[in-house]
Amino acid sequence: MNQGYERGWRRYTFDEVAVNPAHAHGADVEIRAGAAFNRGPGDLHVSFVEIPARHTGDAIGLHIHRDVPTGGDVEEWYIVVEGECVMSFTTGEEVRLGPGDLVTTYPGTGHALRVLGDRPVRIIAVVPHAFRTDRPAALYDTLPDEFRPQIRVLACDPVSMVPQEACCVICGSLWSTDQQDSRSRTLPEWARSHACRSRQ
């Protein structure tokens, strides 16, 4: 990708970045997204994302960031530029976000986003060359304590990065999308209520 740095700098705006329709990580909502720049597989990339209002459910589906070329899990940042939204995590937690907020999701923790209210949301999504694991799930213990996820994603869809299997590092309880009984819940719902969390 030609970065256009001939003069030593470049400005990026929502009006200049070419955005295209997309369905993000298994969500039914059509969003618009485009790369401002991409330094190549496994390296820094930044995207501009526009998400419409007036829909229910997640506009960006629950997913983790697994770098396909290396197989490692990577960190992602969302910077909210316009609108209000809620981000939910594979830990079962949620946070409300508005303009000026930055939320970081560390390697191995999944996240999803839904719009609040009747205004569209604009975010800048950054996958920095920052915290990362050498391969998924196996080396989470090498991360600093504050970045180590309590809920480990063990398997995910290789295209959408939607979690298919996870476990709790505290009690060893397992969750998977294959559960077909009355206990079947989304990963965040399970993370909020599985056995070791319910004892706290």
Question: How is this structure best described in words?
Answer:
The protein has 200 residues and is mainly β. The chain is 6% helix and 36% strand. The protein is built from two helices and 13 strands. The strands form three sheets. It has a six-stranded antiparallel sheet with strand order 1-2-3-10-5-8, with no helix packed on it. Strands 4-9-6-7 form a four-stranded antiparallel sheet, with no helix packed on it.
Question: Which SSEs are present, and which pair or pack?
Answer:
Layout (H helix, E strand, L loop, with lengths): L19 E3 L8 E8 L6 E7 L8 E4 L12 E7 L1 E6 L4 E4 L4 E4 L5 E6 L4 E7 L23 E6 L6 E6 L5 E3 L10 H7 L1 H4 L2
Antiparallel strand pairs: 1-2, 2-3, 3-10, 4-9, 5-8, 5-10, 6-7, 6-9, 11-12, 12-13
Element order: H for helix, E for strand: EEEEEEEEEEEEEHH
Count of alpha and pi helical runs: 2
Mean pLDDT: 82
Topology, number of strands: 13
State the share of residues found in helices, binned by percent.
Answer: under 10%
The largest β sheet comes out as:
6 strands, antiparallel
Our measurement of the CA-to-CA distance between the termini, rounded to an integer number of angstroms, reads 50 Å
How are the strands of the largest sheet arranged?
1-2-3-10-5-8
Shape: globular
| Residues in β-strands, percent | 35-45%
Q: What are the low-pLDDT stretches, counting only 5+ consecutive residues below 50?
A: none
Q: Rg, please?
A: 17 Å
| Backbone structural class | mainly beta
